Amino acid sequence: MSNVDKPSKRPLNSNFSSGPCAKRPGWTPDVLADALLGRSHRSAPGKKRIQEVIDKTRLILGIPENYRIGIVAGSDTGAFEMALWSMLGARGVDMLQWESFGKGWVGDVINQLKLHNVRELKSGYGKLPDLNEVDFTHDVVFTWNGTTSGVRVPNGDWIPVDREGLTFCDATSAVFAMNLEWNKLDVTTYSWQKVMGGEAQHGMLVLSPRAVERLESYIPAWPLPKIFRLTSGGKLNESVFKAATINTPSMLCVEDALDGLNWAIRIGGLKSLIERSEANLTVIAQWVESSNNVEFLAEDFKIQSCTSVCLNITCDWFVSLSKEKKEDAAKKVVVLLDKENIAYDIGSYRDAPPGLRIWCGGTIEVDDVKALTPWIEWAISEISIEYTA
């Protein structure tokens, strides 16, 4: 029998998945009632809606006026691949990776683009590579927040303003929850379904003037499919950044993204979004400090993510298990919480150490995080019976 009493208080929202993430508080399908369904995205009302998403994105995030913002296909992955295939190859590349998505970008650059002047700076889960080793005469490719490791760069201090190469930042689980320093970023991508809890399949691409200069002065050695082409006649296709998307977007998803942005404005903008996410992390940190069963996967709290919070299970019975049994036991904890309708989809990523991953972005209410943690303690205790009998 478990030695932990079953909690009585339940989270009101059990959606703690790290993507797609929880909708904003108070969201209902009714907010989509005015979506321009059956209308062309190139109609005047359609373009106006799309442009409104771009304009409010710029407003909330404080993106400089001379940066371009575009909506592209294929979520964050499509946006980042578009950038890599369109701009890399002009100079050497430093690639930073400390979790699975960063590792994936390395594989694409080396195995698909087949670039040779590539340096890989890497570390294991829970750590960052030595940021002082980055060569900014090269292009630099990195994730601001490692979604599968719960490790983020602490700030942009390590990136020089007067760098020679471009910086390519996959910011999908950081933007709207962390302070991005736009003067340090040349190519930034993310997707609607992460921090803002929007619908999937649409990516955002933000380009600095330096990135535009690269696009207009460099032609890759490989062919580019139409969906990746950002230039026409050697010049930037400005229409892509003025609501004329390369391919057809879902106007239902556009409406949903706009609802999320309007909510962010109502609650106080970026400052409030960051505060909400950091408050959720604080609840987790207080729990971790008092618990004998869990600890952060991140080895240093200065680099601990406030969105994708990854945890190791550290109780004695779990630590003593083989790797295979740890994976099995962690999965059973996750399944039990799902079965109780307490938390959905909080297992660690398949390539990460077996454990838990709790989404704590700004659409999550702090009271729900407070209600969740005793349930995790209970679930770990319940599952321990099978392994300690």
Summarize the structure.
This protein has 389 residues and is α/β, with parallel strands linked by helices. The protein has helices spanning 44-61, 75-87, 100-112, 209-217, 251-267, 270-290, 316-319, 323-339, 366-388; strands at residues 68-73, 93-97, 118-122, 139-143, 145-146, 151-152, 167-170, 187-191, 202-207, 231-232, 235-236, 294-296, 308-313, 355-359.
Summarize the structure in words.
The structure is a single chain. By secondary structure, the chain is α/β, with parallel strands linked by helices. It folds into 2 domains: 31-266, 3-Layer(aba) Sandwich (Aspartate Aminotransferase, domain 2), CATH 3.40.640.10; 269-388, Aspartate Aminotransferase, domain 1, CATH 3.90.1150.10. 35% of the residues lie in helices and 15% in strands. The chain contains 9 helices and 14 strands. The strands form 4 sheets. The chain has a 7-stranded mixed β-sheet, sandwiched between helices. It is globular and about 70 Å long.
Number of helices: 9
The Cα radius of gyration reads 22 Å
3D shape: globular
Q: What is the CATH topology classification name of the largest domain?
A: Aspartate Aminotransferase, domain 2
**Roughly how much helix do the residues carry, as a percent range?**
25-40%
CATH homolog superfamily of the largest domain: Type I PLP-dependent aspartate aminotransferase-like (Major domain)
Number of strands: 14
Q: Helix/strand/pairing class, anyone?
A: alpha/beta
Uncertain residue segments: none
Major sheet summary line: 7 strands, mixed
